[in-house]
Amino acid sequence: MTPTKVAALLTFLATPFAGHAQDGPAFDCAKAESSAEKLVCDDPALAALDRRLADRFAAAMSVAKGLDAGANEAEDLLRATQRGWIKGRDECWKDPDLRVCVERQYLQREGQLVAQFMLEDPRETQEWFCGDNARSVTITTFDTELPAIRVEEGDSVYVGSLRSVDTPGDYFVAFWGAISFDGTTARIEDNYGEKAGCRIAG
């Protein structure tokens, strides 16, 4: 076979694959097992979300690899949390509306990655004082499709997202609690049910 024919054959073989990669999800649909994966393969909008999340994950991994200290641990943790997220997404078969659940899982995970690894410029960053003991927390918000939030308290960083587009200002932050904003004040409720008021510093 001449070099020209070889090149033509390779082009022919690559063309449908490229189209599938562009239109389908980032994973191989031939290996899809869960109802969530099969739905993503059949739904162009969810497939696009999957590709977008794969790009976010790659960007987060790049940030983790570039850390001056603890890069290996950060990479391992990122991979572990992604595996955990996949398991959580696949649990959507229990939800009455599979598609709504799957889409929410993707949007929440995207926001978590953006907030954790600062993959976008934030909407704003503000320092808040909460509770009688004047807990100081730095809160950063992001205009991802489902708005995301980053809470820094002491040496710890927590991330979360808007509960719903129907509840603006009402966020849930994993391992930290919930916070509801109302102008220059806010209310928080931690994972133990303790509530406190907050105000912007200054």
UniProtKB/TrEMBL annotation:
Q: Which InterPro entries match?
A: LprI-like_N (IPR009739), Lysozyme_Inhibitor_LprI (IPR052755)
Q: Where is the Lysozyme inhibitor LprI-like N-terminal domain?
A: 29-92
Recorded hits in Gene3D superfamilies, A to Z, give:
1.20.1270.180
Gene Ontology cellular-component annotations: extracellular region
Domain of life, per lineage: Bacteria
Q: Which Pfam family would be a valid example here?
A: LprI
**Residues in the signal sequence:** 1-21
The entry's keywords: Signal
Keyword presence, Plastid: no
Q: Where are the transmembrane segments?
A: none
Indicate yes or no for the key word Signal.
yes
Give the protein name, as stated in the record.
Lysozyme inhibitor LprI-like N-terminal domain-containing protein
> What species is given as this protein's source?
Pseudooceanicola atlanticus
